[in-house]
Amino acid sequence: MTAATFRALHHGRASGDPLVLPGPWDAASARIFADAGFPALATPSAGIAASLGYEDGATPPDEMFAAVARIVRAVSVPVSADIEGGYGLAPRELVGRLLETGAVGCNLEDSEGHATLKDPQRHADWLAEVRAEAGDALFINARVDTFLVGTGDPADAVARARLYVAAGADCVYPLLAPPEVLPLLREGIAGPINMAAEPDKESVAELGRLGATRLTFGPGMQRYAARAIGELAAALRV
Question: Most buried one in 6, 65, 82, 131, CB count within 10 A?
């Protein structure tokens, strides 16, 4: 599967019909989602971290890339990988290591340690370097963290998103943006918008109706599975 195949899934979608990308945290969960008929998958860094025994943001890059590679090998659909802030790697090395996993896309966030926003122009310049190294071989989903660690002003998110799209991002991801601001973001941002959904039909339907192009779930599915296993474990104790 190629980045072109994955990119095409984001365009020409009918209103209210977002691209829904489940978030596998290992090869087994990836196979389940692919077998269910989803056309592509998007790994969550926090879900993979939990599966490997790390806190979110603490997974060593070698282990993250290896986990993504195992997921890609397990399925025949395109896989995009959340590689957080890029692990301090230069664009050429980052792109090379990601392509070695077989992933066709990536998330790249614009905050440091989920605590401080990066300078938007410097981040846009860095994204442009990543795009130049990758060419068309990667779908770049630029995460906008103003609702996570910034002011929460939709205008700030729109301003950053426009810089990132101009730098070559295929999609922008305003993490934790409330559903009610999505129409404002949709009006101000050209191109696909990724929103984080809860793992239920109601959330998916609402965000699709409000204008989301694609929906991902962060670690929501891994945590849902963990709760289900916890309930099973409790029920089996006698």
Answer: 82
Question: CA geometry: angle at 3 spanning 209 and 9, to 5°?
Answer: 25
Helix (H, G, I), strand (E, B) or coil at 118: coil
pTM above 0.85, yes or no: yes
- pLDDT value for 113: 85
Separation between Cα atoms, residue 69 and residue 135, nearest integer Å: 21
Longest dimension (CA), the chain: 60
Q: Are 23 and 217 in contact (CB under 8 A)?
A: yes
Q: What is the DSSP string of 178-225?
A: -GGGHHHHHHH--S-BEEE--SSHHHHHHHHHHT-SEEE-TTHHHHHH
Q: How far apart are CA 107 and CA 43, in angstroms?
A: 9
What pLDDT digit, counting tens, does each position of 162-192 carry? Answer: 999 999 999 999 999 999 999 999 999 999 9
Reported residue count of the chain is 238
Task: Please write the tens of the pLDDT for every residue from 41-58.
Answer: 999 999 999 999 999 999
Q: How far is CA 178 from the centre of its chain?
A: 17
What DSSP element (H or E) covers 79? strand 79-82
User: Looking up tokens 């802030």, which residue turns up?
Assistant: 85
Q: Report d(CA 117, CA 109) in Å as an integer.
A: 9
